[in-house]
Amino acid sequence: MVRGLYTAASGSLVAQSAVDTIANNLANVNTAGFKRTLLQVQSQPLRDIYRIQTDPGQAPGAPGVAAMQLVGQLGSGAQVYDTPADFEQGPIAATGNDLDVALSGPGFFTIRDGNNGISYTRDGSFERDAQGYLTAQNGDRVMGTNNAPIQLPPTGQVNIDRTGAVTVAGQQVGQLNIVEFQNAVALRPQGSDRYVDTGNANPRAATNTSTLQGSVEKSNADVISSMVGLITNERWFEANQQVITSEDNLTGQAVQTVGRTNAN
Questions:
Q1: Quick count: other Cβ atoms within 10 Å of Cβ 150?
Q2: Most exposed residue of 28, 31, 133, 138, measured as fewest CB within 10 angstroms of its CB?
Q3: How far is Cα 33 from Cα 87, in angstroms, rounded to an integer?
Q4: Are 140 and 175 within one domain?
Q5: What is the dihedral of CA 216, 222, 227, 228, to 10 degrees?
Q6: Which residues contact residue 76 at a Cβ distance below 8 angstroms, ignoring those fewer than 6 apart?
Q7: 105-132: per-residue pLDDT in tens?
Q8: How far is CA 113 from the centre of its chain?
């Protein structure tokens, strides 16, 4: 009975994690470049079940002999294995803003923060700061292929071609550093729609990605499937809660009745 409690509790925890993950996806359905998070679940390790007893001694008066026999294996519930991002291409929407850039393909923009940390994003809603540098929405600078930020002249029409070349008034001022990863699973979310390389993503110069000026990539979170997932996991949570209640009632009855003798 106690094992049943723990098994049901593990199912409840997984269902709660699924609800939290889906809710975060729904909250970012209008976030440019957002990639929905998946929840991967695995079973907990199987546990061996033994029957332990004391066999009679081999001779009269001899002490009993402890004996243990394998009955079989018992599952102990479920647990969260990983929460990777799904980097499927999101829909592209035109904005008409010259500094908005969408990516078509598996590439990422390279961003450097104020502490010289490098991160990657699909959000191409860029701006020009007071010094003329091309930046992300929070002011972090967009990197060029020469590992330096891209600085725009104070005046002139900004054009970004499909290869990521940035020109102002016909003069090239930089090239967007767009990278692709051999192992995108190794990218982990950092916040603000950014991802960091955990060391195994293996970035390389993009060869299968093109840029679209005046557009942004929208979130790839799907509202309908997310709502269905919320309902499914809430029912899963409730079912496990009912099992916990039943197991608790059974345990209470066992505590009150097992070992009780009827008085004559």
A1: 23
A2: 138
A3: 10
A4: yes
A5: 180
A6: 3, 6, 7, 10, 44, 45, 46, 47
A7: 999 999 999 889 999 999 999 999 999 9
A8: 22
Q: What is the pLDDT of residue 218?
A: 96
Q: Answer yes or no: is 49 within a domain.
A: yes
Nearest to 221 by CA among 15, 28, 21, 17: 28
Helix/strand/coil for 113: coil
Q: Among 177, 193, 14, 16, which residue's Cα sits nearest to residue 87?
A: 193
pTM for the full predicted model: 0.81
Q: What whole-number distance in Å separates Cα of residue 149 and Cα of residue 146?
A: 8
User: Which residues form the domain of 54?
Assistant: 2-29+40-82+222-250
Is 168 contained in some domain?
A: yes
- The DSSP secondary-structure symbol of 34 reads -
- Shared-domain flag, residues 96 and 200: yes
Task: Give per-residue pLDDT as tens, 183-214.
Answer: 998 999 988 889 999 888 889 999 999 999 99
Question: Does residue 158 fall inside a structural domain?
Answer: yes
